[in-house]
Design goal:
Shape: rod-shaped
Helix content: 55-70%
Number of strands: 2
Structural class: mainly alpha
Number of helices: 7
Radius of gyration: 39 Å
Largest sheet: 2 strands, antiparallel
Distance between the termini: 110 Å
Strand content: under 5%
């Protein structure tokens, strides 16, 4: 509040009281600012921890978080330290808390076990299979037809 506004409300106020009020206002402002910054840092760290746990493939974020030593996790310049090491240890000791890293099967096309086409098997082929052979391999089709 401004000095004139205060004097209107409290006409007998002294300069010492005004200075004391000003000091108290500054202290309250600084205290509120500091608490707000700490709360923001704490919530930001909390968010980063939860994101890190979720990205690690945890089945249950709360369960994994309960096993972490949160006081060993720090935040500086928007980067977290100490979380990845703890998660790796948990993956080794409590692997059931995390999704298994699936290795996708690698398939290759191989023609092993395919029988060689003979004149007899060629004659047994239906129209569609003969047409397919003609379109895919005309030289083999001609060769089998001539035999």
């Amino acid at each position: 509040m401004k000095k004139k506004e205060i004097e209107k409300i409290f006409p007998n106020v002294t300069d010492g009281q005004l200075k004391e009020l000003e000091t108290l206002e500054k202290e309250a402002y600084e205290k509120g600012k500091k608490e707000t910054e700490e709360l923001y840092k704490k919530s930001e760290l909390e968010r980063l921890i939860n994101d890190g746990i979720a990205k690690s493939g945890a089945k249950n974020v709360k369960a994994v978080k309960a096993l972490l030593e949160l006081e060993k996790i720090g935040l500086s310049d928007g980067k977290m330290s100490g979380l990845s090491e703890q998660i790796e240890e948990l993956k080794k000791s409590c692997g059931y808390l995390f999704d298994a890293e699936e290795k996708k099967p690698h398939f290759t096309a191989q023609n092993k076990g395919a029988k060689e086409l003979t004149k007899k098997s060629f004659e047994a082929l239906g129209y569609k299979k003969r047409l397919k052979l003609f379109l895919e391999n005309p030289a083999l089709y001609k060769q089998l037809q001539e035999r």
